[in-house]
Structure formats: structure tokens, C-alpha cells
From TrEMBL:
A GO MF term: monooxygenase activity
UniProt: heme binding residues: 447
Keyword Heme carried by entry: yes
Annotated protein name in UniProt: Uncharacterized protein
UniProt xrefs under InterPro entries: Cyt_P450, Cyt_P450_CS, Cyt_P450_E_grp-I, Cyt_P450_sf, Cytochrome_P450_monoxygenase
Keywords, alphabetical: Heme, Iron, Metal-binding, Monooxygenase, Oxidoreductase
Superkingdom of this protein's organism: Eukaryota
Entry-linked PROSITE patterns: CYTOCHROME_P450
Organism: Venturia effusa
Length: 491
């Protein structure tokens, strides 16, 4: 009975809330698609078809840097606003979109680092493991990452470079993802998941994960739909976990907790368990599981998407690969490339940063709620408390005022000092670009796994480009973006 009552209330809210917001002061003054004034379904459709970032860029060009994209949501693309809204000074909480990403355990929502809306609660969850996700800790996993990179190269050799397999095309996009998930399993639970070993999506785990991301990607644009569907009490009560990736992760966690460590290398789980001992009132078993999930998602899909983008743009842009290889040769590096060498190779660094600029990992908006004090946009529009501001690097990353001429083209040299450019002018220009680089978000909700992701990316990319004789097949073409909705992939 309770489920039916909730469903009816949701339907009523579905009708009345958009009407209320359509006449809300501030946002009603902003331009945008006519239908966006009255329903969130338009945004649901943009995400459902798999390329919302295309629409957001088009809307910015059509209407300007402040566009109404839903009854209570503003798409903001203004330089200087991202860091202000996402930063430490303003009290902008995450929007209700995060409720769609909140995990349910034993019939109840469980706060996680990624989905928690309240800043204080997020800080409480983050504090026990902050040092675990630091760069100094990430570096301690380098040997384990090297082992998995070597195994990755061995498997590529076995599958594509021996005997009758010589010359066979490699679906490198999938293999990079296999590596990314296996390496995270290695340094998180001291156990690879098995994708590299088998060379395919084992038991459809990645398929299930992609399907779940796709659902949440469009549902988060209208959270009330999630309340009617997967958060409905009846559904929650009757539904048992069937996502194969989640079931596998739980199995690995159980095995890891039960076994004696056979290696001297500490893994993330060691540190999570220590955090639980030190902060038992915060780090419950449910929260500990959330830490593991955060590590997997921050260090796997992110790494895979970035690596694909780096490979794609490097291989399709004449001269880039040769410059990277020359830089690697002159460095005298060993392989896998040590992080301390990789981070000091200017052209490699420029290539990675440019690829990440061209292909931001997320296609959804970074949403924040206007606080009780309200907020005034650069154009003078005063937004009422409760209005949602949505931002995406997909609009900011192609602003000529930030990135210089031809921002739609892949040009690693934009990150380097020009032949006739003075040092002071270059440093000023570089500072502007880095200040507007939100690849891992910004402020108190910056991606907690950014250091481990950077470690993987800055090691994997130069190792592959330096050792493997690779080319795109068929010949280079304009980028094909496949709709994963949450994380956008290059195909």
C-alpha cells in the first residue's frame, strides 16, 4: 500500500513541480528551448539518446552562456564561474540528481563519497581515507601497476602478435578497459578481476555495469522517475542484486577479507580497514564497501576513457606519435615508464592534457543548488535559492578565450611555450588553461581518485606509445562518440 501511495504522490509532484518552477523568479528570464520551461523530460531525452554534450554545446552557441535547460536547471558556461560554484567559498550543495546514484543496501540508502549531497557528511566520509587517496600513497602502488601493465602487454602479444594472429586487428578500446578494471582490482583487493586473462567481458559484467550507468545517466535528469522505478519500496523489497559486476566485486571483497595477505604490498583494502579501526562510528561496513566502489569507478572507467582518447588523437594527428617517441628515447626511460619520468616529459604531458580537454570523461552536468543567499549570474540575472546550476567542461573546453585559436582541434603545442612567445606571457597563458581544466572536477568535491587515475594514465599511455607499433584501422576518421551517457567513450 505504501508503495502505491508514494507512486501517486510522485505522479502529482511530476505534474505540479515543473509548473511552479516555470514561473520562478530569475530562471524565467533566461532563454532556452520552449519545452524546457515546463518539463525535465527534454533533458531525459537528450541523455537517453546518448549524446547530451552535443546538445549542451549547441544550446550554448544558440542562446549564450546561461541557458534554461529544464524548469529549474540553468546550463552555465561562463568562464570564472566553474571554480566559484564548485569551490570552497560558496555553499553550493550537489543537486537531487545524486539521489539516483545513491546505493541501496538492506532497503535503505547509504551515503557514499560520490553521491552524498551534504557537504558536512561528505567531509566526514572523506576524512578517514583522505591520506589513502593522496599522491604519496598512490605512488606506493606503482610496482603493482607495472605488473599489470606487463601482463597487459603480454596478453596483447599473445592475442595479436604471435603466429597466425600477426596482423590481426585489435579492439584496443575494449582491451584498455580490461586493463583498467584489472589494475584497480590488483591495488584495491590484491586480485585482478580476470578480464585480461580471458580477453573478453567475463560473465557480462561490463555489460551490466554499462547498462546501469546508462539508466542512471538519463534518470538523474528527473530523479522522481527513479523514485517510481528503482527506488520504489516495492521494487527495492522484491528485487535482489543481479548486476554481475557488483556481485563479482562483493565476492572479491569477501575473499580478500577472509584470506591471509600473501604479498608484502599493502592494498587499498588494508588502508580502508585501518580507517575503520580508527573511525568505527563513520566507517561502517556499508561505507567501507562504498570506498571500494569509489576506487573501482574512479580508477577504472576514467582511466580507460582517457587512455582511449590519448591513443585516438595521438594516432590520427600527424607528427604527434613521432614527437612522443623521440622524447621517450631521449629520456632514457625503462618500460613500463616510471611515473617520475613520465610527469617530466613536456610533450607527453601536453598530449595527455590536450586529449583530456578534447574528450571530457563525463557527459552529464555537474549540478549544484543555489544556496539560501541566492546567486547573481554575470549577466545580472538573480537566481532564487533552490535553483539548480548545471555545468559541463564540454562547453568550457572549447572557449577560444581560454584555449586560444582553433579550440576544436587537437593541438598539444597549445600547452607549450611558442618559439616567439616570452616566458612571462606563456606562464600567464598556461595558468589560465590550467585554472579552467576541470577534468577531475574542483573544490571540496574534486575526484578523490584523481591521483591514482593520473598515475595509471601517465604510465600506461607512454608505455603503449613507446613500445607498440600501432595505427588506427580503418584509416583515421572524425571521432565517433558512443553514448554511454555517464562516461562518454571514444569508439
Amino acid at each position: 500500500m505504501l508503495g502505491y501511495i508514494i507512486a501517486i504522490l510522485c505522479v502529482v509532484a511530476l505534474v505540479l513541480r515543473p509548473i511552479y518552477h516555470s514561473f520562478k523568479p530569475g530562471i524565467r528570464e533566461l532563454p532556452g528551448p520552449w519545452l524546457a520551461k515546463y518539463t525535465d523530460l527534454l533533458r531525459v531525452y537528450w541523455s537517453w539518446k546518448g549524446d547530451p554534450w552535443v546538445t549542451y554545446r549547441r544550446l550554448q552557441k544558440q542562446y549564450g552562456n546561461a541557458v534554461r535547460v529544464a524548469p529549474n536547471v540553468v546550463l552555465l558556461s561562463e568562464q570564472g564561474q566553474f571554480d566559484k560554484i564548485l569551490g570552497f567559498k560558496e555553499d553550493f550543495a550537489k543537486s537531487d540528481a545524486m539521489k539516483v546514484w545513491t546505493p541501496i543496501q538492506n532497503g535503505k540508502p547509504v551515503g557514499s563519497l560520490a553521491s552524498t549531497q551534504d557537504r558536512k557528511l561528505h567531509a566526514n566520509l572523506r576524512r578517514p581515507v583522505a591520506s589513502t587517496f593522496s599522491m604519496s600513497t598512490a605512488i606506493t602502488f606503482e610496482a603493482g601497476i607495472d605488473d599489470t601493465i606487463n601482463y597487459f602487454l603480454t596478453r596483447l602479444d599473445e592475442e595479436f602478435m604471435r603466429g597466425s594472429n600477426v596482423g590481426r586487428s585489435c579492439d584496443i578500446d575494449n582491451w584498455v578497459q580490461y586493463f583498467a578494471f584489472d589494475v584497480v582490482g590488483e591495488f584495491t583487493l590484491s586480485s585482478r578481476i580476470g578480464f585480461l586473462e580471458h580477453g573478453h567481458d567475463v560473465d557480462g559484467m561490463l555489460h551490466d555495469l554499462n547498462k546501469e550507468f546508462a539508466y542512471r545517466g538519463w534518470a538523474q535528469n528527473m530523479p522522481i522517475l527513479d523514485q517510481l522505478l528503482k527506488k520504489n519500496p516495492i521494487y527495492v523489497y522484491l528485487k535482489s542484486p543481479t548486476n554481475k559486476f557488483i556481485l563479482k566485486a562483493r565476492s572479491l571483497i569477501t575473499q580478500r577479507l577472509a584470506q591471509e595477505k600473501k604479498t608484502g604490498r599493502p592494498d587499498f583494502m588494508d588502508r580502508f580497514l585501518e580507517a575503520q579501526k580508527q573511525h568505527p562510528e563513520v566507517v561502517t561496513n556499508e561505507v567501507l564497501g562504498g570506498y571500494v566502489a569509489t576506487t573501482f569507478f574512479a580508477g577504472s572507467d576514467t582511466t580507460a576513457i582517457c587512455a582511449r582518447a590519448i591513443l585516438y588523437y595521438t594516432l590520427r594527428t600527424p607528427g604527434v606519435l613521432a614527437k612522443i617517441r623521440r622524447e621517450l628515447d631521449e629520456s632514457g626511460t625503462t618500460y613500463p615508464v616510471p611515473f617520475k619520468i613520465a610527469q617530466n616529459l613536456p610533450y607527453l604531458d601536453a598530449t595527455i592534457r590536450e586529449a583530456m580537454r578534447m574528450h571530457f570523461i563525463g557527459s552529464i552536468l555537474l549540478e549544484r543548488v543555489v544556496p539560501a543567499s541566492g546567486y547573481t549570474l554575470p549577466n545580472g540575472t538573480k537566481l532564487s535559492p533552490g535553483t539548480v546550476i548545471g555545468m559541463t567542461p564540454w562547453t568550457l573546453n572549447f572557449d577560444e578565450q581560454i584555449w586560444g585559436p582553433d579550440p576544436d582541434s587537437f593541438v598539444p603545442e597549445r600547452w607549450l611555450q611558442g618559439d616567439e612567445e616570452g616566458k612571462e606571457a606563456f606562464e600567464k597563458r598556461l595558468a589560465v588553461m590550467k585554472h579552467n581544466d576541470f577534468s577531475f572536477s574542483y573544490g571540496p568535491r574534486v575526484c578523490l581518485g584523481r591521483h591514482i587515475a593520473a598515475l595509471e594514465i601517465w604510465k600506461l599511455a607512454p608505455t603503449m606509445l613507446g613500445l607498440l607499433d600501432v595505427s588506427l584501422t580503418p584509416p583515421p576518421a572524425p571521432p565517433l562518440f558512443l553514448g554511454r551517457v555517464w562516461f562518454e567513450n571514444l569508439g
